[in-house]
Automatic annotation (TrEMBL):
<dbReference type="GO" id="GO:0006457">
    <property type="term" value="P:protein folding"/>
</dbReference>
<dbReference type="GO" id="GO:0034976">
    <property type="term" value="P:response to endoplasmic reticulum stress"/>
</dbReference>
<comment type="similarity">
    <text>Belongs to the protein disulfide isomerase family.</text>
</comment>
<dbReference type="GO" id="GO:0005783">
    <property type="term" value="C:endoplasmic reticulum"/>
</dbReference>
<dbReference type="Pfam" id="PF13848">
    <property type="entry name" value="Thioredoxin_6"/>
</dbReference>
<dbReference type="InterPro" id="IPR036249">
    <property type="entry name" value="Thioredoxin-like_sf"/>
</dbReference>
<protein>
    <recommendedName>
        <fullName>Endoplasmic reticulum resident protein 27</fullName>
    </recommendedName>
</protein>
Length: 166
């Protein structure tokens, strides 16, 4: 390669670098570095709430359940459909410390497994209790929430749940 050719290539590279939108690049890197499904625990909690993705879908299920492996597989498949739009989180209901998460969504142990969706910006949320985890069911639940449809009655009429560090 001649010196002139290298100079032109470097010049084009510099123009390409200058035209990159830093915000878009940052979002692209964050989205593509996330796991399809992140397990909720004290170590991941802070990162989850600091994420650029403001809608979180939680699968609340006991990992000791006989349906766990198959449910998680289908949940991961659904996560691929919403990558970059919805953060998919697994909450093990068999872990006592996760009881705060379950009670935040006003769920009882008898209603599990359940899906809970939460928007960090305005704290809007909805649940689908006793949910059989299928790609279609997860997709319909997420699509409905994204379109402003809620399964539960207006949460504003309920007693306001005080903001608690989950």
């Amino acid at each position: 390669m001649s010196a002139l050719s290298k100079k032109r290539q470097n010049c084009q590279l510099n123009k390409d670098i200058e035209s990159i939108d830093a915000t878009k690049l940052s979002r692209f890197i964050e989205i593509n570095s996330l796991h399809l499904v992140t397990e909720y625990n004290p170590a991941t909690a802070i990162g989850l709430f600091d994420s650029m993705i403001q809608i979180h879908l939680l699968l609340i299920m006991n990992k000791a359940s006989p349906e766990y492996e198959e449910s998680l597989h289908r949940y991961r498949e659904a996560a691929k459909l919403f990558q970059g739009k919805v953060l998919f989180i697994l909450v093990d209901s068999g872990v006592q410390a996760n009881g705060k998460v379950i009670s935040f969504f006003k769920l009882k142990e008898s209603q599990l497994p359940a899906l809970a969706i939460y928007q960090t910006l305005d704290e809007a949320w909805d649940t689908l209790a006793g949910a059989e985890v299928s790609v279609e069911r997860v997709q319909n639940f997420c699509d409905g929430f994204l379109q402003g449809k809620r399964l539960r009655e207006n949460h504003e009429s309920e007693e306001k749940t005080p903001k608690v560090e989950l």
